[in-house]
Structures are given as structure tokens and as C-alpha cells.
Amino acid sequence: MNSINTKGSTLLIIGLALLSGLFGSCSKDLGNYNYSEISELAISNLEQQYAVLTGVDTLILSPIVGGDLASSSEADLEYRWTLRMQGTSRAADTIGTSAQLKFPVGVEKGQYLLEFRVRDRSTGIVFSKRANLAVSTPFTRGILILGETQTGEVEAQMLSMIADTILMDGLIRNSGLGQTLTKPGEIMYGGGFVDSHKLVWIFTESGSYFFDRERMSSASTNTISSFLMPTDPIDVQQEQPIAMAPQIIKSDGTISDEFSRAIVTRTGNIYTTSTLLGQGEFYNPINRLASDFERLLPAAPFLMYPLGSMSSMMWYNQEEDRFMALAGFMFIDHSSYPVEAAGEVFSWNLGAQGQELIYAENTFNRDGGFVNGNTFAVVGEGSKQRYIYKFHARGSNPVKLASYGVKEIAFNFHQAEQYAFSSNRTVVFYTVNQRLFAYDYNPGNERLYPLDPLPGQDITMIKFDTQQNPAENSLYIAGYKAGQGTLKRFNLDNNPNHVALQAVPSAAWDGLLKIKNINWKAERY
To answer: Do 307 and 257 contact (CB within 8 A), yes or no?
Structure first.
């Protein structure tokens, strides 16, 4: 198992509580000094660069004073450690007055100049040495986790991956939200360069709230209503998002489209915005037709788009049971029915066939030459035949690629609790009664593979990595047993004649929640 450093949990709470007062408690460095030529031999055992986590780490440094100062009496030496944020006009703060520095880091994140000064009172000569200090929050980079505690309450954690892996626990409990949440949905970081989008969102059936990306603080007023400005007669206080797009698609925090944003709410409304027009406010819903503009068509909780570029998208109309298309995000306030053509592999109008959408997932599958990725959908009716549809979900001109009838060998596929589609193979993973199966739907070579990647545990989540390293074709699997959750990453082999999962030794963590969902967080800006 990959070890998890939990020492930061207590320090984090203390650090956040002291954050606002730390700079006030640091004395400003207003002294005047006569400096000598800096001797490299005078002060040693200090590196040029340090990196720490605010609210977690204590910076301990023990420089060696030598050279011309070595013969000075200790009583004649005066020490001072100062810290100044680079790129600002702020004065330096004194953070220590002893030869050794022991500084519980609680300053805001940023790049700092750390300076150690030694003054010989008998001569007035000052020697100094500087270092760069990079301060990050433990929430800058890592895996966000949403799940349930042993008592069934929604809670969030983060596997912070700045240097060592540190488990940050109780993110909701310690956020200031003051709400008990139930039935977890999704957790995600919006990313991008617009401040109003750089938020962590937690979606649950009992309410959805945003959290500060640096401190994971929140409040009961942190809802989507702050961003909704419809002219339609909509009670924005009743709107709760359950899905948001686009997602992060690279480990550095890159998102697929910096200018477009979409959310779908529990009431079935879809709101979109373009950052080219403003700073992230959402106006009237787009889940309507131009020919019947006053009627809002309830949307399913799936936003379908090419992961590599969300210049347009598709969604699903639950009232009429058919796929819908949105051609773009600028100056477009309605959707349309995708064009149908005779002889195509399936119809966008599921209702006309007595079917409905059960599940949809965006992937980096590139069949048909669509480098930005294709979407898969599971459709069917009740306990009857299931089909897998593959299509390129650009709303401006969506393209149907394939329809696969699910064979009877796919054990209880119609009872599946969750699905995960591989981008690189004709394989879908699914769970039934918290047991894992892999179904190869390649026509003429259909096969079923019962799997037991976490022996003795119930499978609570399966999710392909389309965020950190999509090319590796990795599958995250979460398990649960006796009140403890586990998360592991597996690589899917490329042999078309069988399905094998290879555990990644450095990507296994335990002592977690009963996991419902995970999402990658990295701050590119």
C-alpha cells in the first residue's frame, strides 16, 4: 500500500485557524543595517529553494555560521529570519530571531524570499543568505474524494500530492458549511482562468455547494444561485447542480475549453455561459426549442461533449426521450433536434423506439478520426435488451458511429449499478451487487470477464482516468469493507483476446471513505 501521511490533518486545522492572524503576529522588519560583502563561508547549510504546505508543514532550518563570524562571541550575535512575498510591495515579516528557524507555515500560498541575517553587534557587520520558498496549500494538487462515513453522512477527503501523499480528511466537516449532507453525487474542481470557475463543487441529493479552492472553506450561502441571472420566472434558490462541464483533462489542470461552461440542475435545467462574454454568470436555460421557447424540457444528468474540446455539446430530453444538440455557447439560448438520416446505425429519437437513456459517458475514444473523443451511451427499456451507442457528441453536427447489442452473456447487464467505458478498447466495466464485470462488446468476439480486483471488498466506484494520464488507460476502483474504504489504480492491458487489470503499486490507498466519486484537482493558473 502507498503510505499516507496523516500528520497534516491536525496541523491543517490549526494552520487555517491561525492563517488570518499570522501576518499580524509577525513583526515588520524596519531595521537599518550596514551590510558586509556576503561571504559564502559565513552562512552554510541552507539550500537555495524550499517548498512547504501552508497549514501542514513546519519549516525547520539549522544554518551553520562560520567564516568571519565563527570567532565572534555568541552574545554578540543577533539573528533575524524574514519572509517577503515576491512580486508584491509588501514589507518583509520577521518570523524568527534565533539561530535555528522553527516556523509553523500558515501564510498564504505564493513565492517568497526567505532571508537569514546574522549581525555582529560588536562590529555592526551583517551577514545574510537568501532562499526561495514556495508555499502551496495541501489542496493545490491531488485526488478529490467524495463518499460516505460509517454513519451515512456525506464527507470529502483529498489525497494531496504536492510532494508526499497526505490524506486531508473531514473537508466538509471542517469547511464551515454547517450542513449535514446525504446521498453523495459528484465532486469536481472547475479550473480554468476565471476566478468564479476556480471552485471545488460538491453535488449531493440534499444540496450542492462550492468550496474555496485553497482552503476548502464554504458556507450555506455558497450555492449556484450566486451565479444564476435568468430573466425567466425561475426560483434560483431551488436550483441545485448535479453535473458540470468541462472537466480537467491533463495532470497540470488543463481543461478542454477555457471559454465554455455548462451545468445541469436537479430540476432538469441546463445553464451555459461563455467567458468571452462575461465572468461566469449563467442566464436563461438552453433546454428548450426555438419553436416552443416558453417550455423547458427536463434534461437527464449527463452533459455529452468531446472531452478534448467543448465548443458545443449534446444533452438528453427526458420528456420526449431523445438526444438534443446545442450548437455553441455564445449568443445561443435554445437547442435543436439532431438531424436524422436514413440508414444510420441508430436514431437520436429513443422514444420512438420505446427506449430511454440509462447512462452516458465521455471518453477519449478516437474512432472515426475524432481526436477530441467520443461518447458512449447505454440505452434500453426496463429489463429488456440493452444497446451501447457510440457517437461524436459535438452539438453542431453530431456523428453516429456504432450501435452494439449487448449479448446475453453479459451477466445482469440490465441491473448494472455503474459503468466505466475504456477509451482504447471495446470493453465496458460494470458492477452488479457491488461485484465487478468486464464485457467486451466487440462484434463477433463478445466475452464476459468476472473480476475480483479487491478481494473481500464491495466495489463502490469504477472510473477511468480521463484527467491525469488518459493515454495510460487506467481504471480507478474503490472498495469498502468493515467501515474502511480503499482506492486503487489499475492499468488495462491491450491484448484484444482477454481482459487483465494490472495494479499500479504506487497508486493504492486505504483508510478512506465509502467512495462514491473522485476527481483530479490541479491549479494551472
So the answer is: no
Torsion angle of the four alpha carbons 175, 180, 183, 185, in this order, in degrees rounded to the nearest 10: -20
Note whether 513 and 147 are within 8 A (CB): yes
Least confident stretch, 32-46, 69-83, 268-282: 32-46
Q: Tell me: the pLDDT tens digits for 89-144?
A: 999 999 999 999 999 999 999 999 999 999 988 888 888 999 999 999 999 999 99
Give residue 6's pLDDT: 42
* Nearest Cα residue to 432 out of 418, 421, 452, 446: 418
Complete DSSP assignment for 236-277: GGG--EEEEE--B-STT--BS-SSEEEEEETTS-EEEEETTT
Amino acid making up residue 513: L
Q: Output phi, psi for 332, to 5 deg.
A: -120, 120
Secondary structure class of 18 (helix, strand, coil): helix
Task: Give percent of the chain with pLDDT exceeding 90.
Answer: 81
Inter-CA distances, 158 with 213, 481, 514, 517, Å: 12, 20, 13, 12
| C-alpha distances in Å from residue 441, one per residue of 347, 386, 406, 472 | 20, 12, 7, 21
| Whole-number pLDDT of residue 68 | 64
Contact yes or no for 211/200 (Cβ under 8 A): yes
The pTM for the full model equals 0.86
DSSP state of 93: E
Question: How do residues 26-50 score in pLDDT, each as one tens digit?
Answer: 445 545 555 544 444 578 899 999 9
CA distance 311 to 393: 11
Q: Strand 125-136 and strand 110-120: pairing?
A: antiparallel
Identify the pLDDT of residue 16: 32
Contacts 24+ apart (CB under 8 A), 475-482: 475/420, 475/422, 475/429, 475/501, 476/518, 477/436, 477/453, 477/501, 478/147, 478/512, 478/515, 478/518, 479/454, 480/514, 480/515, 481/456, 481/457
Give dist(CA 38, CA 17) in Å, integer.
38
The dihedral sign for the CA sequence 292, 297, 303, 306: negative
How many Cβ atoms are within 10 Å of 334's Cβ, its own excluded?
17
